[in-house]
Amino acid sequence: MYKFLIRPIFFLFDPEAIHHFTFSLIRFLFKIPGLSLIFKKTYTVEDKRLERELFGLKFRNPVGLAAGFDKDAKLFNELSSFGFGFVEIGTLTPKPQPGNPKQRLFRLKADQAIINRMGFNNGGVEEAAIRLKKNKGVLIGGNIGKNKVTANEDAVKDYELCFDALFDLVDYFVVNVSSPNTPNLRELQDKEPLTELLLSLQKRNNTKEHPKPILLKIAPDLSEEQLTDIIDIVSETKIAGVIATNTTISREGLDSPCYLAAEQGGLSGKPLTTRSTEVIRFLAEKSNKAFPIIGVGGIHSAQDALEKLEAGADLVQIYTGFIYEGPALIKSINKAILKTM
What we know:
With about 350 residues, the chain is of the alpha/beta class. The protein has helices at about 1-10, 15-30, 35-45, 75-80, 125-130, 155-165, 190-205, 225-235, 260, 275-285, 300-310, 320-325, 330-340, and strands at about 50-55, 55-60, 65, 85-90, 105-110, 115, 140-145, 170-175, 215-220, 240-245, 265-270, 295, 315-320. The chain contains 13 helices and 13 strands. Strand 12 (about 295), helix 11 (about 300-310) and strand 13 form a beta-alpha-beta unit. Helix 11 packs across helix 13 (about 330-340). It is found in: Cell membrane; Membrane. It comes from Leptobacterium flavescens.
């Protein structure tokens, strides 16, 4: 029903406007008694064989919602009813910021893709922390970044502020240095500044009675040499794992009109399927599976998810595929995983 009735209507409207409308609609619907249970029964696959234990956490199934959809932690409880095994909120920054000027979100329907240059628009980590206190048992990842106005040499402090604010409220952290939409942010992926950032967070983490897993989210545009550096950095800093991958700045092979393809920002969706899987395979093989990998990028079908798991991912996340395919995608992936057992 989603792909043939709901999606065509939604796609008539501005992508960012319909995103906010959808949030309001879901919030309204879930206030109707019993509807949450109906969604859970419709989309959730309950099977012990789907459970995964990674970096000290138990995931009820390996399919999560990627960061960027619920940036401000406003809907994670409701979204978990669509069958997700975990939900990643953010990217959050210490101070609220509006993000980049609108229009900043574009559908490339011919490619089943999205270009966004949102720019870490969020209400700030403190507001999100208040909402996270109402968590009803959802496994939450906290994706953190720096404010646009913060210089790279001062970035560590921003990540530490977010880390401290969310520590008691999320199950794992994701360090986002790979978004293309904050000026100069990707420079933090270079070996020296990235190692410094992760060591600083780990030092803070290790002062806690129960340290939290810290993961690194990387871009799909890294060279093999840079990916090898990532493997070394994970080993040196002893972080829990890697999320591969974020959006791409590449526009290779697109079928959408030139005026759309030329929009600045990060590209997500089907054009990213192959590259993100290549990155996962490279990291898994070159590191001898030394650390867990969460695979994300271009998952629009159960087969796409299986290919990432076969390449070396331990868990997968969806975002653009969720928009194009609807909530039935989560159920189909989990059912496909069960069939491989």
